[in-house]
Amino acid sequence: MAAASTASASQVNGSALPSQGDKYRGAVVEDLQLPPAFALPSDEAISRAIESAYERDFSYIPVLDRHRKPLGYLDVAALKEKWEAGQAAPDDRVIIHLTKFNRSSSHPYTIITPSTSLPELEEFLRHNVFAIVTDYSRKFVLGVATQQDLDNFVSRRG
């Protein structure tokens, strides 16, 4: 667990300020009310990927293998740059342009589920641009969470 989530209230000028973990008031990823995930199969054409990303206003799209296991993701802005520079053809498959997840003993896979605490998600997002939210057995991609989702959650709660 992140150190921020275990911090206690601090005293500044005699008044208690909430710790970093308290700003979420015990909330979990499910409380973010993320839209349902949109993911692409690895053999999808990048023309469809770009079109789908703009329709949904997504910056990152998870890419799945034929068993629906996450392989990596498409960075839509980077893919668009490649397209405009002539480095990507409309019929290219997304697997050619995906960023693979770095899974190794030095970079263990972090599971983010609907019950993951928001301080844990925040700590994960300090080192990653987004988080893929999966079910508990990692068989289904449920959503994608970003720092903006956390910021919006805090601002909605006041």
TrEMBL record:
Biological source species: Rhodofomes roseus
SUPFAM superfamilies, A to Z: CBS-domain pair
Listed name of the protein: CBS domain-containing protein
Gene3D superfamilies assigned: CBS-domain
Region of interest (Disordered), ranges: 1-20
Domain CBS, residue spans: 29-76, 106-152
InterPro entries in the cross-refs: CBS_dom, CBS_dom_sf
Regions that span the bilayer: none
Compositionally biased tracts (Polar residues): 1-18
